[in-house]
Fold this sequence. Notes:
mainly alpha
Amino acid sequence: MHLSLEDFCELVKGLEKTNAEKALALLWYHDRKQPDLAMSAGQLTRLLGDHHIGTANSTALAGAIRRTRLASERTAGFSLKPGSRKLIRDWLPSHLEGVQPVMDHASGFLPEAVWRSNRGYVEAVCRELNGCFRAAFYNSAAVMLRRLLETLIIEAYEHLGRENEIRDAGGNYFMLVDLVERACGEKGHAGLNLGRDAKAALKEARQIGNWAAHARRFIAHASDLTKLQSGARLVVQELIQIAGIGR
């Protein structure tokens, strides 16, 4: 995010929101940089005071944040619930420097319903994928799809307690070509029990993503992505379910 904390605080100061909502906006700012970050009521109270946004008692602020039902509370403090990010983004001006523009993700490359209420870093990649696709940056969209699939395969193996199947002797995860081979159950590997169509889509998306990332003369076009769209949705849904990270 290019917008400095100081500039963002000036923006928040002008919002017609309660102290708790302004505190959540500050949490949203930091969550954009570090998804699923937790901040204590004391930290948020200090931010409100230090930047002259509002004055609050940390105990009272904590209670008010709980009542919004927009954040989860854990030992380290409050973190945004998955569905809260879009709601808080809608409080802010539609065009902010260094902040992703408001867009209808329901009609993106991957509909929001597929990945909503997921882990913060998965949602962040999906938002960027949709944004690149909408803005016609097709090479970037293909690379983001590649990254998403790589992440979800690893998440699936970790959830199943089988991550050693996708690590090398040094403990590092394999490259995507080897991850896909194992996920599809090829060359004697156990696989992830993906459906036939999901396996085909995974291989095709990997190929386009690899070309977009590494082939010097390859330029992705809209048709390269649109022909992948249905299959990509299928394989992403299956991997999210296998990884146990969906709703």
